[in-house]
Amino acid sequence: MKIIDVNLLPPEYAPESPYSLRNVIILVTSFLTAGFLVLLAFQILGLKEDYMRENARLAAILSKLRKEKSRVEELLARKAEIERRYRMIERALGGRITWSDKLSQIWRAVPEGVWLQEVSLHRTAEREERPKREGKARKGEAKKAEKEAATVETFQLRITGESAGLSSIEELLKRIQELPWIEEADFSSINKRFSSDGREVYGFEITAAFRRRSG
Fold first, then answer.
1. pTM > 0.85: yes or no
2. Where are the beta strands (DSSP E) in the chain?
3. Of 2, 51, 78, 124, which sits most exposed with the smallest number of CB within 10 A?
């Protein structure tokens, strides 16, 4: 006897086939969503690693900057200390030009093509200078004049060197004469010789005089 199944349920209540289009779309969408979430998770992990590396790099840079800042602060403190000592020395000297200052000015006055061999200084004279008074000085004025008396020392500066051209030597003399503390300067001697390769070389000696007051 043959049995025939008859489905008397309405179509909307009938069981849906697992291979229906709707189920296939849902399955594909689920797989795509899961894949997207996996990719997003990997991207988040990559961003986290990049963030950690960048954070470590910035931390190293910050540590280096802190060390540099500490070093700069030490240098600034050292500079301030040197400036403070310089001002103390300047006040102690009373603004006078020291011998080292004079040598520095002479060095800056040397033109190109001139080389110095010797710079020497000799004291040639010393005398006491008193302020001039008109008429006969009183007793009190005489004591005041004695206190105001100053010792004047005269020095002779001797500069020797060589150059390949006379114009450079003349320029050196001109610059020496223009120094504010030099009273007079001139050539003592100029001589010419030939170098081993046959070039002319001029030797020279310049003498200059200046005075220094003390007291």
1. no
2. 114-129, 150-163, 184-194, 200-214
3. 2
pLDDT tens digit sequence for 62-83: 888 888 888 888 888 888 888 8
Please answer whether residues 96 and 153 qualify as being in contact, where contact means their C-beta atoms are separated by less than 8 angstroms.
no
Q: Angle 99-109/166-177 helices, nearest 10 degrees?
A: 140
- As a whole number of angstroms, the distance between CA 141 and CA 213 comes to 22
CATH architecture of residue range(s) 99-133+146-214? 2-Layer Sandwich (3.30)
Phi-psi region of 13 (alpha: psi -120 to 50; beta: other; left: phi over 0): alpha
**Tokens matching residue 60:** 């190293």
Contact predicate 149/129, CB 8 Å: yes
Task: Give yes or no for a contact between 203 and 124, defined as CB atoms under 8 angstroms apart.
Answer: no
Query: Tell me, what amino acid is at 62?
Result: L
